[in-house]
Specification:
The relative contact order is 0.22. With about 300 residues, the protein is mostly helical. Helix content is about 80%, strand content about 0%.
């Protein structure tokens, strides 16, 4: 009887731990799927630019993603969000539906995907910083030391690659970091109140009128030359990166929190470097993987630092 009684608490703890870990494991898997989807965005955008101009590519991809989202929202009879959530949805729409795709697409006209991947490797750090500001938490000194070190590595890399001065493409990329981090932070907050796919779905619907108008204006003025690469790239950035990627990302972020989800993005720059070589045939400069590795170390320190 004594042995049975002593074993019971241990079994209960084990079962409780498994129950607690299960949602966390699912959240980690979903966020990781989002990272893999995002890592293909730059190569897919480069393919899309073979057939479309930058403005028409962004407008058409967002329009297609919004139509997909709208079909799901209608099929599931999802009610309109509460009035208090529309401002947050506007931030998500401006950051991840319009701002980041447009700025990175413009940057990829002059930057290679491997170069852009290293610069955008600062996104997890930027997201964690904005999330800390948004929630009112004060990060530790270790956090800020690592944050400044990571920023210094990225700036040094971009200066070295552009011959001592920031290029227009780099300015686009740094702007993309800020708007995307804001969209991630606000989306992660909203995902605490509604399902993650509702967040990106309504953000896309919010942008639909603007994107339809943008498509109508941009397509006649930018040359369109359809190719297999161009169509595949467009389909992926619309259905894969914009809808599916953000759907699983916000679900995972809601389950494990913004800082832990951001930590999973440490793998994104390296994955994009791999895709840029295998899919686009780009050659990496010796500084690119070194810079990516240094940035990852800095971001890892920020994730472990107390906040």
């Amino acid at each position: 009887m004594t042995a049975q009684n002593s074993a019971t608490p241990t079994s209960a703890i084990a079962v409780g731990s498994a129950t607690t870990a299960s949602p966390r494991a699912r959240g980690t898997l979903l966020a990781a799927l989002g990272v893999v989807s995002f890592s293909l965005t730059f190569p897919s955008t480069a393919w899309g630019l073979e057939s479309f101009g930058p403005w028409s590519l962004v407008a058409v991809r967002s329009t297609l993603a919004a139509l997909i989202a709208g079909a799901f929202l209608l099929a599931m009879r999802v009610p309109l969000p509460e009035r208090r959530h529309w401002a947050g949805l506007a931030v998500v729409a401006g950051g991840v539906v319009v701002g980041f795709p447009l700025l990175t697409t413009l940057a990829l006209q002059t930057s290679t995907t491997s170069h852009a991947a290293v610069v955008v490797g600062l996104l997890p750090l930027t997201t964690a910083t904005l999330a800390a500001i948004r929630t009112g938490r004060r990060p530790s000194r270790t956090f800020w030391i690592a944050a400044v070190s990571g920023a210094a590595v990225v700036i040094a890399f971009t200066l070295q690659q552009s011959g001592g001065a920031l290029s227009t493409g780099d300015l686009y990329l740094f702007g993309a970091l800020l708007v995307c981090a804001a969209g991630y932070t606000e989306g992660g907050r909203l995902a605490q109140h509604m399902p993650g796919w509702h967040v990106i779905g309504w953000a896309l619907i919010l942008c639909l009128p603007l994107m339809v108008a943008g498509s109508a204006v941009a397509l006649p003025f930018e040359p369109v030359s359809l190719s297999a690469h161009g169509i595949i790239g467009l389909v992926w950035v619309a259905a894969g990166s914009t809808f599916f990627g953000l759907y699983v990302w916000y679900r995972g972020m809601a389950a494990i929190g913004i800082p832990k989800a951001s930590q999973l993005q440490l793998a994104q720059p390296l994955l994009t470097l791999v895709w840029s070589v295998t899919l686009l045939g780009e050659s990496l400069s010796p500084a690119a993987p070194l810079a990516a590795g240094a940035v990852l170390v800095c971001i890892a320190v920020t994730q472990r630092a107390k906040s």
